[in-house]
Amino acid sequence: MHVNQTAQYALRAMLHLAALPKGSPARARDLSRATGIPPAYLSKIMRRLVTGGLLRARKGHGGGFALARRPESIRLRDVLGAVGGELERDLCIFGNGRCDASAPCPLHHSWSELNDAFHSWARRTTLADMKTGRLRRRAGRR
Amino acid sequence: MHVNQTAQYALRAMLHLAALPKGSPARARDLSRATGIPPAYLSKIMRRLVTGGLLRARKGHGGGFALARRPESIRLRDVLGAVGGELERDLCIFGNGRCDASAPCPLHHSWSELNDAFHSWARRTTLADMKTGRLRRRAGRR
DNA sequence: CGCTCACCGGACAGTCAAGTCCATTTCCGG
DNA sequence: CCGGAAATGGACTTGACTGTCCGGTGAGCG
Question: Given its phi and psi angles, is residue B100 left (phi above 0), alpha (psi -120 to 50 degrees) or beta?
Fold first, then answer.
């Protein structure tokens, strides 16, 4: 169970932005200080989030970064996807190219269950949930 | 959801060995051909599994690798642990140094649930389960 | 207009997992 | 005892991830 550092950084930055009063932008420098992310690297990450449509950036005086959408509509999977990884589900824990319900590896079923749990969680949880601390309960059991 | 390549290789190799008649060793070269793992790299992995006490190695004519214990007593977590990773649970998905039940990050609870599910699965599942295809049901729901 | 502020974006460096190569050691069979 | 078969282990390469540096670009303000 592991999320790479870039993804961790992205989540920290997004959380910080979500906590700000709506519309007020934060400068990369301030974000860096607040989150402990190396400033130069943070810039790279922020760009990916902008490109991904999750953030809006404004240059010059009074500029900075702000959420492009309401926190309720920004899912964890959007953030993880924007910074590039962590979402391609391992179809097979053995790394077999061909492994699905019709030609399963010996662990396919139970491994898929875990995968589903993770993806469903990332799809279900939004920035707003992180803000409030309240988390959506799972809609139903599989 | 992701297990690194080395871990995938280790699982493939162990599965192959578990399928063999008990006690008959397999050569690295044959294992490599059977599993598609690069031979030189497979050797490295096998050594880690030997060092970890999961395999026994014999050199020379008629040598090779064989399980050091019964398949029922070799857990997935043993294999993953022996090849070095995948088991250190991310204490915090944000990468915060301090994050536990007493000082949780906004996602601590739900993230821990996923982590627990994974670790419990890796502790519960053995090589024997992989062989038979039968999988132990989870002891209880959380 | 012109200055400053903040993001933009490319070039570059360090680290680690993944993988290769080869000499060495150890063992078995004849 | 000898030759080959097999694991062992160190040195090396490669590429992705992480991180730094710095010049460029565009926006706002006086």
Answer: beta
